[in-house]
Structure formats: structure tokens, C-alpha cells
């Protein structure tokens, strides 16, 4: 049966022969896969490549065969593990060409976002390890410097590649100068470090989505000014996670559409260059036309040598152009046009749906699992629609994350009040500030990790001016398989110190709705942080209700004795706290608000208990528990406090439950920590008395 279900089924049976020919690489670049292989495909050429050094030994004619096997292997491995999908398929040919032409890892490839690096990982000695990707102790889903010398720059957030590559290129120039000036004094030291290649090349690979961020343009601007030798490859697939939006996206589409014009231009140049007056006239006319449609004017004006647009799946063309560009000095930009999900039929048709893939489970006879509670992102999305129906001043803003943030329904129901601003978190926040100045009520839906990008805007543009902006902060806390680049570990810490902002931490999906509405009604900066994934399964009210700001709730009253303990829970760990409380018979408070804290509740609980536990899915350093400690200190309490949360380290990727366990934030870990603290207090008692 499994055999039957496995790999690479041709669309129609009669195409089998053609597919076989294709596999034998007589038409290697024409293969289209329509199913994910469940069994390891036959990829002999790929299997012979354990390092790009071997790849560079291949004949150019073999490269399309390799690309085809690489694509098939990637389908297989992502089917086994789940993970990012469409973006990697779109850069298979580019990845092969880059490692073929450049002397990696001496020459530096700097990938943007990094979700497209599965083919790069496969070609750089991690083929078999791909089956561990995004799993605890396995490969990371993004480039990671500790993982491989080929991963030159750790990444996960977008639009960093040009800055990082420029830094590397400038460093190469510095080192080259140093080694040149060192050479006459010491003839034996011709190079700056043993074996180091100081004329190394640097290439940044950035998508059209990532190019929309200000940071990418800051780097382009600087790169052109320095005239540094580097190549930027713009991988233009017209997609971010959703369809790419904005003037830049339109500009790129026009460039591609004007390819015909470009070809005509090249043809006429050759003819006209032989007639000087006609050439001068044509040149001026061309300058004029360039402003309208010519490829790359923008980049050329910035000071880049622009080449393209070219078909990014045409391997011979890629190899040819990269070879030429490698030997041209100065800042260059190669514009390639690719198809997200290339080579896998369903992904080509639905690139949004196939941005990432879930692990393919083999068919089983097990009864279907019970439906899960709604995801927090959808609870937010529903609240957004309901609140918008009541208040026409409501505006919703997303920096390119409309699907992930649960805003699709809203965008369809209220298109005129929905703004996808592209990957531009800083702009999203200040845009909201501007709207708030004019009396609108903007909501910025943003992942915790990406809000880090807009910290100054949050303080300087929103909070300082006391503007009425609500932040719906998704993916707060650990995020699982995406790992530390995407974990929302710090928002409570960096928000808590901002004057005037209010901060809510719902502990279930219904509280999420209620606190969102309460924050929205507050006239000022307000943040509600909620986690990735599904709710805990409580009923969700349909009404739009608010609760008191800065007031928590006693969820469970514990035993009053010499060992009495209270847990102040902030957000997602309430269920685990309640389980522990049942076992130890202790008190639990759902604090709801990190700012303002429920000071009355804190004081009364401190008076009644011998040990206070603070619990949060945020860095302990500076988090909600620190707020409790500060307040107790101010009030002169010396009740011992145990702060539970994320330690002073980055938490790697893995299943959410594994990570919670490793951070001792599951019920077992919380229980152990409390028991240990109680034992420590007991042990210290006699010593104190002695
Ligand atoms: C700063 C930041 N904001 C948002 C994201 C979420 N994100 C991941 S991939 C992606 C789309 C990137 O589009 P593009 O650069 O064109 O690459 P493609 O997926 O099309 O290959 C987005 C918005 C991110 N990684 N970093």
C-alpha cells in the first residue's frame, strides 16, 4: 500500500514513460511533481554531493539533473518533517548555480529570512540530517552559524541580508588591505590568517517581500556609497507569505512585463551604436523611457550595476550570468524572476497555502482526532470582525502577516479598513500613530518577535504621545519549531518599562477576547499578548465585554499553613499552574495585567502566604515577576519570591511541549521548582535561627 502511495506520481498514467525519461535527465528541467514522495527517492547524483566542492567538479550539463534530484529530495524530506516549502522549491536552480560558481564557504552567501535554505542545507553536507529539521536537537529551520560554516549569517527575521553581506564585504576589503600592508614586513605571512581568502566574494540573496523593508533600503543606500564589491540577488516571485503588496511590488511586475522592451533595447543598441547621432538621440530617449519602464532604474540610480530580470529557473543562464557578475567589481544587483513552489504542481497553484507544509502522515485506521479549540490568532480575528461591526473607527494593520495573524475574514469583510503594509513593522506602528492622531482607532496585529523591530516607534511615536493604538501581540512566548529567531520571549520585559502603556496577558481564549476588547476601549497605548497555537478549550462568549483594568482574579484558594504558597500567573501557563495547585493545595491568581499590576491583590496575598511564585512565558529578567518583586520591595515585604519563566538563554527549536519541559514550565517542572524552593526555605530556617 505504502509503495503504491509513494512518490512522484505522474498526472496521468500515460505520462509515465515521459516521466521516466525525465528522471533519466534527458529533459531534466521540465519535471513537475504532483505528489510528495513518501519513500526516499532515487537521487544518485545528489547522493554523490556531500560538499559543494564535489558540486563544482560536475559538468555544467549535469546541473539540471542535480537540480531535479535536489527538488525531489526536498519534497521527500519536507514531507517527512514538515517545514518551509514553497520558497525553497523556488530557489533550487539558484542554489545549485551559486554553489557552482562561488567558492563557498570562503565566498559568503547571505540568505535573507532563511526559510528558503533547505536546498542550500541539502547541498552543504546536511542531506541526511534534513530528516531532523526543526526537531529538538536536529537541524534548525533557518541558517545558523553554529550549524555549518556555509551558514554565514544567522537569520529568521527578514531584510537583514544586504546589511550583513555589506559588513562582510567591507571586512574582506579591510582584511585584504591589512594583509597587503603586512606583506613587505613579513614575507612569510602573505595572508591575514592562515588559509583565509581575503579576496572572497559576498552575495546577498533577498526576496521581493523582504526588499520592502526599510532596512534593505538603508543597506542598498550605504552599499552604493561605499562602492564595495558585492552582489545582491533579488529573488522576485511576486510573493511575500501572501501576495506581495505596495509600490515596489508593482514596480517589479512592470520590470518583468517590460522584458520585451528590454530585449528590444539591447537589439537596437547594437544597431544604433554604429551611428553616433542616432545613438545619442536614442540614449536620451531611453533615459526618458527608463524612468517609465526600464528594468532596474531604481537600483541603477542608487549606484548598483543592475542585470536582469532573468528567468531564475534557467540554470544555464544563471550560471552564465553569475560567472560574469563574479568578476565585475563594485555593487551589483541581479534580478531573477522565480515561481514560489516551483516544480510541485499544487504549490505553484497555491503558493500561499504551500508557504509551509505539515508533516505528511501515512494513512492510518485510527479514528479522527477530536476537533481542537480555536487558535488564538482566530480568536483575535473573530473579535476584530465583531468589534469592527460596532465601531467604524476601527482600523486593522498588519506587516505582511494577514494569514498568520488571523485577519483574512476581516480583510474580506472590511477591505477599506484593512492595511497590509508589507514587511515593514516600523512603518506599521507609526502609520497607526498617525491614524490615531486623526481620531481613528488602529489595531496593530504583530508577532511578539517582529515587534522588536518597531520598539522606537512604539515608544517615541505612540506611547510618548499617549496615542490610542492597540497592539495585538501574537506568538508571545515560545513558538516551537521555528526556534529562537521567532520566539516571543521578551515582549513583557521591553513593554513593561514604557510609561503609560497597559499590558494584558490572557490565560485562555475567552479571556483573550475580553482583554482585547478592554484594551481596545482604553484611550492610549495598550498591548494584549497571546500565544501561538490553540486555546485551552473554554467556551468563548459572543458578547463584547470589558473587564477592570489592572485587576486580577483569585482562581483557587489554597491551604493556609506554614508552607502556604501563592502562584501569580501571567498568561499562558494558568492550566499548568492549576494542575500543580491541585496537587500541592496552594493558591493561584490569574493576574491578567502586567501593567498596571493588581497591587491590592499582591499585598493581600503577600500577607497571607509564605512563598510567592510568579509564572510567565517570558524572560524572567525584567518580566512580569520582576514587576511583582519591585512592588513588594517598595512596600517593604520580604516574602520570598520564586520567579518562573524563561532563563537567561535562547531556547532552541523543538515541539512546544518539549521546550516547555526543558524550561521547566510544564506542570511537572513547576511542581519540582516549587518543591525545591520549599525544601530550601525549610533547610534555611534552622540555619537562620542558629
Ligand atoms: C521582520 C520580519 N517580519 C515578518 C516576517 C515573516 N515572514 C517570513 S517569510 C515572509 C515573506 C518573505 O517574502 P520574500 O522575501 O519575498 O520571500 P519568499 O517567501 O517569497 O521567497 C514573511 C513576511 C519575518 N520573517 N521577518
Describe the fold and architecture:
The protein has 690 residues and is an alpha/beta fold. The protein has 28 helices and 19 strands. The protein is globular, with a radius of gyration of 29 Å. Residues 1-29, 186-197 and 288-292 have low confidence and may be disordered. Bound molecules: thiamine diphosphate.
Helical stretch count? Answer: 28
Main sheet: strands, sense, barrel: 7 strands, mixed
Terminal Cα separation, in Å?
74 Å
What Rg do the Cα atoms give? 29 Å
**Bound ligands, named by name, code or SMILES:** thiamine diphosphate
Question: Can you tell me the overall shape?
Answer: globular
Category from helices, strands and their pairing: alpha/beta
The overall strand count is: 19
Please give the share of residues in helix.
40-55%
Unreliable residue stretches: 1-29, 186-197, 288-292
For the biggest β-sheet, the strand order reads: 9-8-10-11-13-12-17
Percentage of residues in DSSP E strands: 5-15%
pLDDT average, as an integer?
A: 89
Amino acid at each position: 500500500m505504502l509503495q503504491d502511495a509513494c512518490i512522484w506520481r505522474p498526472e496521468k498514467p500515460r505520462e509515465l514513460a515521459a516521466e521516466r525519461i525525465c528522471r533519466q535527465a534527458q529533459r531534466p528541467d521540465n519535471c513537475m511533481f504532483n505528489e510528495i514522495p513518501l519513500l526516499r527517492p532515487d537521487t544518485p547524483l545528489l547522493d554523490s554531493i556531500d560538499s559543494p566542492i564535489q558540486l563544482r567538479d560536475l559538468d555544467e550539463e549535469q546541473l539540471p539533473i542535480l537540480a531535479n534530484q535536489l527538488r525531489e529530495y526536498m519534497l521527500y524530506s519536507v514531507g517527512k518533517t514538515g517545514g518551509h516549502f514553497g520558497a525553497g522549491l523556488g530557489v533550487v536552480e539558484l542554489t545549485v548555480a551559486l554553489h557552482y560558481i562561488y567558492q563557498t564557504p570562503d565566498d559568503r552567501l547571505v540568505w535573507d529570512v532563511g526559510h528558503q535554505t533547505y536546498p542550500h542545507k541539502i547541498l552543504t553536507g546536511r542531506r541526511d540530517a534534513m530528516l531532523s529539521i526543526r526537531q529538538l536537537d536536529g537541524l534548525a529551520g533557518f541558517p545558523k552559524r553554529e550549524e555549518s560554516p556555509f551558514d554565514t549569517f544567522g537569520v529568521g527575521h527578514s531584510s537583514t541580508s544586504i546589511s550583513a553581506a555589506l559588513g562582510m564585504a567591507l571586512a574582506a576589503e579591510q582584511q585584504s588591505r591589512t594583509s597587503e600592508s603586512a606583506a613587505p614586513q613579513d614575507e612569510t605571512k602573505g595572508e591575514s590568517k592562515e588559509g583565509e581568502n581575503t579576496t572572497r566574494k559576498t552575495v546577498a540573496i533577498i526576496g521581493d517581500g523582504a526588499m520592502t523593508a526599510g532596512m534593505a533600503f538603508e543597506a542598498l543606500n550605504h552599499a552604493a556609497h561605499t562602492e564595495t564589491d558585492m552582489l545582491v540577488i533579488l529573488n522576485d516571485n511576486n510573493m511575500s507569505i501572501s501576495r506581495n503588496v505596495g509600490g515596489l511590488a508593482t514596480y517589479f511586475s512592470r520590470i518583468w512585463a517590460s522584458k520585451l522592451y528590454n530585449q528590444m533595447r539591447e537589439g537596437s543598441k547594437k544597431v544604433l551604436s554604429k551611428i553616433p547621432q542616432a545613438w545619442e538621440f536614442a540614449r536620451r530617449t531611453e533615459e526618458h523611457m527608463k524612468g517609465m519602464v526600464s528594468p532596474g532604474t531604481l537600483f541603477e540610480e542608487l549606484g548598483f550595476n543592475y542585470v536582469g530580470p532573468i528567468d531564475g529557473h534557467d540554470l544555464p543562464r544563471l550560471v552564465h550570468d553569475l560567472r560574469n557578475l563574479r568578476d565585475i567589481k563594485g555593487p551589483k544587483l541581479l534580478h531573477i524572476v522565480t515561481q514560489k513552489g516551483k516544480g510541485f504542481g499544487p504549490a505553484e497553484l497555491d503558493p500561499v497555502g504551500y508557504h509551509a507544509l505539515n508533516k505528511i502522515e501515512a494513512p492510518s485506521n485510527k479514528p479522527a482526532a477530536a476537533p481542537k479549540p480555536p487558535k488564538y490568532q482566530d480568536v483575535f480575528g473573530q473579535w476584530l470582525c465583531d468589534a469592527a461591526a460596532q465601531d467604524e473607527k476601527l482600523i486593522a494593520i498588519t506587516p505582511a502577516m494577514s494569514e498568520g495573524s488571523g485577519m483574512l475574514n476581516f480583510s474580506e469583510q472590511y477591505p477599506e479598513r484593512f492595511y497590509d503594509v508589507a514587511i515593514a513593522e516600523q512603518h506599521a506602528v507609526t502609520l497607526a500613530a498617525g491614524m490615531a492622531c486623526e481620531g481613528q482607532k488602529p489595531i496593530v496585529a504583530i508577532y511578539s518577535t517582529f515587534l522588536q523591530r518597531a520598539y522606537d516607534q512604539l515608544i517615541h511615536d505612540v506611547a510618548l504621545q499617549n496615542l490610542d493604538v492597540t497592539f495585538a501581540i501574537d506568538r508571545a512566548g515560545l513558538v516551537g519549531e521555528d526556534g529562537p529567531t521567532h520566539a516571543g520571549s521578551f515582549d513583557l520585559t521591553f513593554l513593561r518599562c514604557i510609561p503609560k502603556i497597559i499590558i494584558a496577558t490572557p490565560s485562555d481564549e475567552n479571556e483573550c477576547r475580553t482583554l482585547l476588547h478592554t484594551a481596545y476601549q482604553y484611550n492610549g497605548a495598550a498591548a494584549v499578548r497571546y500565544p501561538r497555537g490553540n486555546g485551552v478549550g473554554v467556551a468563548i462568549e459572543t458578547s463584547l465585554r470589558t473587564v477592570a483594568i489592572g485587576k486580577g482574579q483569585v482562581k483557587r484558594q489554597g491551604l493556609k499553613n506554614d508552607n502556604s504558597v501563592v502562584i501569580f500567573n501571567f498568561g499562558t501557563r494558568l492550566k499548568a499552574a492549576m494542575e500543580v495547585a491541585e496537587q500541592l493545595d496552594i493558591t493561584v491568581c490569574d493576574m491578567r495585567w502586567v501593567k498596571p499590576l493588581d497591587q491590592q491583590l499582591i499585598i493581600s496575598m503577600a500577607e497571607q502566604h509564605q512563598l510567592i511564585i510568579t509564572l510567565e512565558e517570558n524572560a524572567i529578567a525584567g518580566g512580569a515577576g520582576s514587576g511583582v518583586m519591585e512592588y513588594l520591595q517598595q512596600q517593604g515585604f520580604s516574602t520570598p519570591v520564586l520567579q518562573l519563566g524563561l532563563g537567561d538563554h535562547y531556547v532552541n527549536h523543538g515541539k512546544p511541549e518539549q521546550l516547555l519541559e526543558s524550561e521547566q514550565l510544564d506542570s511537572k517542572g513547576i511542581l519540582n521548582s516549587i518543591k525545591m524552593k520549599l525544601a530550601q526555605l525549610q533547610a534555611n530556617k534552622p540555619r537562620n535561627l542558629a
